[in-house]
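User: Hand in any protein.

Assistant:
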Amino acid sequence: MTTTIKIDITSDVVCPWCFVGQRRLETAITTFKAQSHDNVIFDIKYLPFELGGKNGLTKQGIPKVEYLANKFGASAVASMNARMADLGKEENIAFRFGGNRSNTLDAHRILYLAAQKGIQYKVSEGLFSAYHEHERNIGDDQVLADVYAAAGGDRNEAIAYLKTDQNADVVKGLQQKALQKGVNGVPYFEIEEYKISGAESSQTFVSIFEKILEARQV
C-alpha cells in the first residue's frame, strides 16, 4: 500500500541556503526510500518568497558581488562566499558568485506555471543550477524559457507567458500568505504537520519521515 507525504517548500531561487536545503531533502528522500520505503510517494510543492522584493531590483539586476556588498559590507562578502562554496561541495553544488542578482518575480511565475504542467521540481532544480552554478541571470526571459524547456516544458509557451503579467498577483498573494503564517526567512519546509525553518540536515528530514509513517502505522 502506498502512502503520500506532502512537502511544501517556501523558497527563493537566489537563496543559496534554499539550494542546499533542496539537495539535503533529495538526499533524505533517497536514503529513506532505500530503507524499504519504496511505497512512499513525496508530493513536493514550491511556494514563492521573493527575497529583497522591495529593493527596486530590475529584471537585468546588478552584479551579485555589488548586491551582497551593499547588504552585508564588502569585507564580509569574500568570507561568506568561501563558506558557501565549502558547504556546496558537501552537497554536490558548485557555487559560483559571478553574474547578476535580479528581481525574481518572473522566476516564481515560471515555477507556478511549471507546477500546472507537473514539472515544477525539475524547473526548480534548473533555476537553482542556472543561477548559482552557471551565473545566469534568472530575471532574463530567455534564461527562464531555457530552464523551462530543459525540464520538458514548451519554450514558446514560456516566452509568451513571460511577456504577460499572468499569475503575478497569485504569486504575490502566496508570498503574503507565507508572511501571515510567520515565515520570515527561507528555506521553510512544511512536511505534513512538521515545520522546519532553514536548511536542516538530511537526517533531520529522515527522522520526520519516520515519525509520519509511525503515526500512520504504515
